[in-house]
């Protein structure tokens, strides 16, 4: 009988996919199809949840089949992430206009990413104190115990490392291995390696312009091909969103979420306020925050459902260039750097909140100004090299808690609500990278305001 239920569920899912395809054939806009997929997936997932439960044979095997579309789509995106990061950075250097402002642009992108991360950490601290969050009374079940056992292995790699040693770990000692994502810090290592190649290109351009021109043509050709592959994959976004959000709503433990409702509420309070800070910064740059929301929503929606900043990278770059009017160079820099540096949600809000929650157990007053200032500084420095995939927040938290000599067990105790909170954190990460690109483009004049202000055309129309 269970097999019959699974077949029925899959038949319904296929019908829903067919409906999205019919919308595409009728030229319904990309944004509307993404939001339709989000809404339909939420309803379908809730129905599965209440019909079969979260751990039933039917639910688990239905999700296994849905993963062909959901996880398969994320895998396709992650397939192009490292090549796209590398070629995007190189392409940024080969743009003639950008090379004149390369130092200024790099400084602005990094300063905005790190500055917003500091603000995010302060908001996380404020939210934790406002809601009176306390990690001492959290209970440990079977899942939490298993999670903490896993974390012991992870923390061993960072616990005994000083901040200078952690910075050294970001450097690429084997760029080919880093292109496979072999380390948690592989993304920033690829960024650094590509930037070094870019600087070498600038040197060759001054002394051997003909050789540099050949290299630039190769890079531009590769960039064009990679972006075309990205466009083909991004067209699958509505189908991927449908599968991903169905999985989340069908498999979430609503009982555990209710028990940790205060933590979830505090987390989303900080996330929402930080998003409003992004809108404020955009307003101060004399740009419409409403237009930003309209144009950024498809990318933010995918980030929310996929929980992968790295997976959202192609959509991030596409949105910045085609919808915000940001130059390709700045968009490539801000989106690529935003994967591994200064993630507002995963590396800013979350580690700061956990540190405040466990500080009393270490005999520290969490409201102490000296502790708060130290925590913000540690969070900002530790935000370098955070992996832009699910689990990046865990890595960042382990670093922050270890540097401050605070207990790390709290990271595992929140496993039941981790997916729900990670959705909001990831969307905030992507928003932070986009905001960095917009502000940098506005300051340097490498932004077409007409494109930013105009009515939105359909994404991926080409």
UniProtKB/TrEMBL annotation:
GO terms for cellular component: plasma membrane. GO terms for molecular function: L-cystine transmembrane transporter activity; symporter activity. InterPro entries: Na-dicarboxylate_symporter (IPR001991), Na:dicarbo_symporter_sf (IPR036458). It comes from Heyndrickxia coagulans. It is a multi-pass membrane protein. The chain crosses the membrane at residues 6-22, 34-52, 72-93, 105-131, 185-204, 225-245, 265-285, 371-389, 395-415. This is L-cystine uptake protein TcyP. It is found in: Membrane. Belongs to the dicarboxylate/amino acid:cation symporter (DAACS) (TC 2.A.23) family. SUPFAM superfamilies: Proton glutamate symport protein (SSF118215). It comes from the Bacteria. Keywords: Amino-acid transport, Membrane, Transmembrane, Transmembrane helix, Transport.
